[in-house]
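User: Please fill in residues for this 431-position structure.
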């Protein structure tokens, strides 16, 4: 009589568990706009959620520790003239987030460590180049300030956020709507899925499709007949892929191996309520002392519910096998280096002693002087005398003044916030 051999895996018993009610984020009007994005982005400092907004588009940013009921007057990030469709935190600066909108623009924002008094309305830079709504944005994993956007104009654009300029436009590669875009680990290639039912692997710098129309999958996994779009999240450190269906109430997870059959079903986390969207915490934001290997931020209609995925272990010691060195917050390349053809693997950090987020680092945008670059090919474009008379030293002086003014305004905002808090305490004490 033969015995069935059970495949050995340290992730076989991974289980998901929602946090307690007081650790959720309550009273958030999650956006009802129709879009396939996740509506939520998280990092070791903040959780950001796209919300309902009258007369434009907005998202809310909450410090991770600010759980419970959210004040109805909590400041929003507003500036788009139409609904926000996607948001993504910069992997190299926890205070910088990008947003894409139906208004055809991409905006990049600096979020202060303190809670501002008023809405944040001024982006650090606005990127304009799409002719239709922009539904996908994704930061480059290793190069500083490189951001990808994809719109309903079937166009993929790569930007240098540090200068506000377009680096590359991939405009003849997709015949229909782009559904999703993802980078490989070192950012040398990207993969897209499209409404034309083709998967394309693209070398963006050569502007070439290097693989297309995969004839035979190495593994085929039957899913149920849920009509919601699947949001996949892949953890390269543990080789686990998590599949969250929009409108579904479960998270299925699978381990990926190098040998056939390649994809191994692990388990399913199930709950009663369907998810409107989902955020996925980077590995450096997890609690390694509790053997936490993933944390999701599940969006309901009026709240955000963190869900913790844990490997059961009895020891309190650091589990080396669960936490290999993971990508840290330092970029491996500058934008110009990457554009010139250089590649670099992510700079890794150890999680042995946990991760402490870096203090607020300001994103500096230096617009290049138009006189320093050659005129574009084609019809000659005229520039105003104001442009030509504005020397580089004078421009830098103005930028320095603007930076100093911004710092003053931020300091005053913090002072006003502190005074308001003291006033609240005083009035509460006198009641």
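Assistant: Residues filled in for all 431 positions:
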């Amino acid at each position: 009589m033969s015995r069935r051999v059970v495949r050995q895996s340290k992730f076989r018993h991974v289980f998901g568990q929602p946090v307690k009610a007081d650790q959720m984020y309550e009273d958030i009007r999650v956006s009802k706009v129709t879009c396939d994005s996740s509506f939520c982005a998280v990092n070791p400092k903040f959780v950001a959620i796209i919300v309902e907004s009258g007369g434009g588009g907005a998202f809310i940013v909450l410090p991770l520790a600010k759980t419970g009921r959210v004040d109805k007057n909590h400041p929003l990030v507003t500036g788009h003239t139409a609904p926000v469709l996607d948001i993504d935190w910069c992997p190299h600066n926890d205070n910088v987030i990008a947003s894409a909108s139906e208004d055809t623009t991409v905006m990049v924002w600096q979020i202060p460590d303190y809670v501002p008094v008023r809405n944040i309305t001024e982006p650090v830079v606005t990127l304009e180049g799409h002719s239709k709504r922009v539904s996908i944005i994704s930061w480059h994993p290793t190069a500083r300030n490189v951001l990808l956007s994809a719109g309903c104009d079937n166009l993929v654009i790569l930007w240098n956020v540090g200068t506000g300029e377009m680096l590359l436009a991939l405009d003849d590669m997709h015949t229909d709507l782009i559904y999703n875009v993802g980078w490989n680990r070192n950012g040398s290639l990207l993969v897209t899925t499209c409404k034309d039912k083709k998967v394309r692997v693209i070398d963006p710098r050569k502007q070439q499709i290097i693989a297309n129309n995969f004839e035979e999958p190495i593994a085929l996994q039957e899913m149920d007949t849920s009509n919601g779009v699947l949001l996949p999240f892949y953890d390269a450190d543990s080789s686990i892929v998590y599949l969250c269906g929009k409108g579904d109430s479960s998270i299925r997870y699978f381990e990926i191996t190098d040998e056939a059959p390649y994809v191994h079903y692990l388990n399913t986390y199930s709950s009663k309520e369907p998810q409107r969207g989902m955020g996925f915490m980077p590995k450096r934001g997890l609690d390694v002392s509790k053997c936490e290997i993933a944390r999701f931020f599940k969006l309901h209609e009026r709240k955000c519910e963190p869900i913790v995925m844990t490997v059961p272990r009895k020891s309190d010691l650091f589990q080396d096998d669960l936490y290999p060195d993971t990508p840290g917050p330092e970029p491996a390349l500058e934008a110009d280096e990457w554009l010139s053809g250089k590649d670099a693997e992510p700079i890794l950090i150890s999680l042995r002693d946990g991760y402490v987020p870096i203090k607020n680092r300001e994103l500096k945008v230096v617009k290049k002087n138009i006189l320093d670059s050659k005129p574009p090919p084609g019809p000659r474009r005229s520039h105003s005398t104001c442009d030509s008379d504005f020397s580089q030293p004078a421009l830098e002086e103005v930028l320095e003044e603007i930076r100093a003014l911004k710092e003053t305004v931020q300091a005053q905002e913090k002072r006003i916030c502190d005074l308001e808090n003291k006033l609240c305490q005083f009035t509460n004490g006198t009641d």
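For context: Confidence is low (pLDDT under 50) at residues 373-390.
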